[in-house]
Amino acid sequence: MTETISTSTTGAPRAASTDLAAETDQRAIDTLRFLAADMVQAANSGHPGMPMGAAPMAWTLWSRHLRHDPASPDWADRDRFVLSAGHGSALLYGLLHIFGYDLPEAELRRFRQVGSQTPGHPEFGHTAGVECTTGPLGQGLTMAVGMALAERMANARFPDITGHHTYAIVGDGCLMEGISHEAGSFAGHLGLGNLIVLWDDNDITIDGGVGRSCGDDQLARFAAYGWHTEAVIDGNDVEAIDAAITRAKADPRPSFIAVRTVIGFGAPGVEGTSKAHGSPLGPELLTRTKEIFGWTEPDFGVPADVRAACAAIAGRGAEARAEWDGAFAAFEAANPDAAAEWRRTHARELPRGVAEALASVPADKPRATRVASQACLNALFPVMPELVGGSADLAGSTGTAAGDPVTAGDYANRAIAFGIREFGMAAILNGMSLHGGFRVFGSTFLVFADYLRPALRLSALMKQPVIYVLTHDSIAVGEDGPTHQPVEHVESLRIIPGVQVLRPADDAETAEAWRMALSRTDGPTALILSRQNLPQLDPARHNPSATVEIVATGSEVHLAEAVAEGLRGDGYNVGVVSPLDRTRYAPSAGATRVSIEAGVTAGWDGIVDLAIGLDDFGTCGPGGEVLAHHGFTTDAVLSRVRSHLRSAEGR
Amino acid sequence: MTETISTSTTGAPRAASTDLAAETDQRAIDTLRFLAADMVQAANSGHPGMPMGAAPMAWTLWSRHLRHDPASPDWADRDRFVLSAGHGSALLYGLLHIFGYDLPEAELRRFRQVGSQTPGHPEFGHTAGVECTTGPLGQGLTMAVGMALAERMANARFPDITGHHTYAIVGDGCLMEGISHEAGSFAGHLGLGNLIVLWDDNDITIDGGVGRSCGDDQLARFAAYGWHTEAVIDGNDVEAIDAAITRAKADPRPSFIAVRTVIGFGAPGVEGTSKAHGSPLGPELLTRTKEIFGWTEPDFGVPADVRAACAAIAGRGAEARAEWDGAFAAFEAANPDAAAEWRRTHARELPRGVAEALASVPADKPRATRVASQACLNALFPVMPELVGGSADLAGSTGTAAGDPVTAGDYANRAIAFGIREFGMAAILNGMSLHGGFRVFGSTFLVFADYLRPALRLSALMKQPVIYVLTHDSIAVGEDGPTHQPVEHVESLRIIPGVQVLRPADDAETAEAWRMALSRTDGPTALILSRQNLPQLDPARHNPSATVEIVATGSEVHLAEAVAEGLRGDGYNVGVVSPLDRTRYAPSAGATRVSIEAGVTAGWDGIVDLAIGLDDFGTCGPGGEVLAHHGFTTDAVLSRVRSHLRSAEGR
């Protein structure tokens, strides 16, 4: 692995420390400090402390190590930089500005305003050079792990044109969050030596000193995960930071570098305290701080030598990019098919054969939609080499087996053993999707969608087409009882903006759901699948002239069919509709509408006249008995529908 | 701290290893193994492997250390035992059965059946002796941390009558979950030496060997949190387990004991593999395993010497309980007021003065409901000493400051600095509530309710009156942008069964919300509070004869009032209703109903004719501008309502 990584090390726009005078380093660092403080002051809102403390490590990283071309922020083989401590967004905007990304001073002056390119937290897709949306703590670190994994997997497939690092700056909050454990453990296990994390160790949280709530030995902790660790005792020491990053790049393990900093560095009276965290310094204190630093630039000013230094670094980045373009051209000349595949997957275009693959899934006997989904995946794998993913330790149960998993040092496989880390899995998938070149999926039981919900929300906010395979989708789970029986979960996913929630009823609908999931390139999909066997439905079952319309999804469609049959015996003209995606359900205006779903009725009651569901927790017992216990039998539902129809008719 | 802990150490029903013959130990362990295997076989569903591997540590703990009285499972000063690896429920039921808890053989035979006392995962309130609901991994460990903290805080208040340990058995899944980091870090920081965790280190997860997904050095990791660690290399070695627990009890730090076990121990062909995890052995393999063990008892049998040994241990537990009763009587005689307070708080009865305290909160000027909530808390603290809690590092921002926090070794304060650990906070609160003697609250921003959601669900499932203070409740959060702006969150909480969701509009409603939260003793409450200032409303604003009814909650009520005023100018008879709890909203049948909430419309559209909300992510910018951007101004809403009314009237 170190061999391929060295591609990027040697190709990096590395500036020997002698190239840039130490005074320019210092001025560049102060520029970042005061750009951030000026932004926060102009907005009268934001977090000046983190940028002022972390500016030296950020400058050292960006000026001496980060391989990037500000003119081509989408260059596939660039190093990735993640500001996991997203509240320090002003630091990132300052970096993007001085290095010549498309972020002019006018945008810095509009920090945190409606419609600006400088929102309060970095937002992917909003600002050139922002690799991911951060702010919800711990997720940036974990997305960085996903980016690093995607790089290793891409390297295993396209070694000639892939070799870059992923860097992250994390804060105390990131490290206290549970997801940092999942990220650290996973990255250590997979030996992601291309990942380098700098910890802004400023000893301060919003409520006060870190010591109020945490006494972790973070270096020992990351060492226990199998990471290389470094400590920089003076966060203003550019050479020490540089040396630590250099050693980290040489080490085959992921690296964790603790950099001791002072929050709000240099601002008298607030530096080193939580007062510097989340409030503007105020005009007077900002002026005084600038005086102490001997800072004579106008507000938002960038000194000429800093501009020149950044331009030189950007120039070397452009050279590295041009060099890579040459490597790609050579690769393409020698391997036109592989290069076309690379281009296709990076454009998120589906290959030929997807429809045929899905059509090949047999729909010949009753089976669970999770099993049908595994059949879809098995059919898709040969035609979609970019389709990779795994499970939070439920690959067999959820129908997401994909062969042997990737291991430390061998990233050629497509399966990922995420371990019992649902939240980590989802954030890693986000990172992989953001990296590009892959279509990714991850699975767990639907009830544990709660564990990964904050990352699923970010999938939607970042418009990433991550596919969540969520099985065991109702109380029919049975014997595992209410802790494992989703009730509110389908609805809870439907109400997150931008999430496509699909609940198929049989093999044909499962294949269609996979097609819809793969066709979507601008947002996540949740596939909601059954544990229990379901009959194959008659595809010609729709009845547009019905006066009673029963709408159901997934496992309840065949129940709806049975209920409809009973009502037809009563003489009603009944139709059954099974919208894979409820938002696409067009209610028949003239019909009396009844919904059946083994979950909460909220969300249905605005669409139908009678919503049959379950607004309480489930029960332990065999699945069929549990369904019966909660009224999900043909007789019980039929009785409720008949009673409703009679009362509606005034009978 | 060690001094008070020693109360329970000396008072424990400790059986010297010479008291119980080694053969009886072995038979008792095999009894637990085969009771579990028999249960799983009878149900044809469940997890035999964990109980068969972990039976020795469970037996050693329960027979030699756990201070409990099976006849009094609610004894306040009992040791707590948490089976965090809840899928091993059959082990817990076996323990409860042989030690004489109210769990007869007939219930073991009904394992995993509807209505049995032996559901698939342990469920609090369902089975005597089950301390908490487990199954969602990692949460049992974290609830154990909460129980241990509650014990220390109770000890600081009632040292004469409080001194017990909390024990937990955790599996690999618990330790991979992120929440285990939050739990471990928090417990280490607070020096919870009364907490002893045994790790069932069987090296197997559902999908295969632990090495597929994890290479953590768990002992080093917990040492990095400040824990005492022990390793038992043979999980069948009762004396080694005993010695490790004994050393753990003597150590002032929380203890983590790695016990190397073999999943499905002794079952030929499946032991040591994931096949033993989640499926019955099958009748033939079970019979063969019993033969290999020389096990001649009938199914569900308990040998006579094991029964006798358990009865003797239970007898010593009853003696310990009687001794404690004596200590309590002496305490009560000397401190009748304190004893009455103890009884009152353990009965979850509110003290006198709560209503008066809440009435004292001034409602004299516009302010945020988070600020009003802090005023309520400040008024409540003097009259409710049992009211304790804290924040996931947002005590100041969320209005939940409660003075200095508890620290390692000094647990007399009422504030808890949970750190940036939302999920851990909620599970710890569950553990504290389950322990008894306290009313607990925890706070974060509403958008981060997603991080703690799995534990909030368990609060509801276990009917624990945990109070969640969730602030910054809409896009009015403003500059922090969409990552920090809740949109779907209020509705996502409303749909969890059993959660009381209250969104007050001003000081009076905030005080009423606190009254409702405290009055509830059988389930959690979420208080949804604003970041921004809100006007004080006219309490006599209701208009029961309205033909247009505007229903709004929280921050949108004053907007609703302004809209109503505009409509009155048009000649409509308008009323505004602000249901604190939407489930208590009784729509006026005759009126045209309009809802206004700055969140998703799902859930409202079944209740009203026009639901005004936001079904997309928010935007970064100053709060007022963001509200305007998304249509939450008097003019914009008025225009939508007028248009709806006109079209409804056919104009």
Automatic annotation (TrEMBL), chains A, B:
Thiamine diphosphate binds at residues 87, 135-137, 173, 202, 277, 448. The active site is at 422 (proton donor). Residues 1-22 are annotated as: Disordered. Its EC number is 2.2.1.1. Keywords: Magnesium, Metal-binding, Thiamine pyrophosphate, Transferase. Residues 367-536 form the Transketolase-like pyrimidine-binding domain. The record marks 47, 277 as: Important for catalytic activity. One of its GO terms (cellular component) is cytosol. One of its GO terms (molecular function) is magnesium ion binding. Residues 1-11 have a biased composition (Polar residues). Its cofactor is thiamine diphosphate; Mg(2+). Binds 1 thiamine pyrophosphate per subunit. During the reaction, the substrate forms a covalent intermediate with the cofactor. Transmembrane segments: none annotated. Substrate binds at residues 47, 277, 370, 397, 472, 480, 484, 531. Pfam families: Transket_pyr, Transketolase_C_1, Transketolase_N. GO terms for biological process: pentose-phosphate shunt. Mg(2+) binds at residues 172, 202, 204. It catalyses: D-sedoheptulose 7-phosphate + D-glyceraldehyde 3-phosphate = aldehydo-D-ribose 5-phosphate + D-xylulose 5-phosphate. It comes from the Bacteria. Belongs to the transketolase family. This is Transketolase.
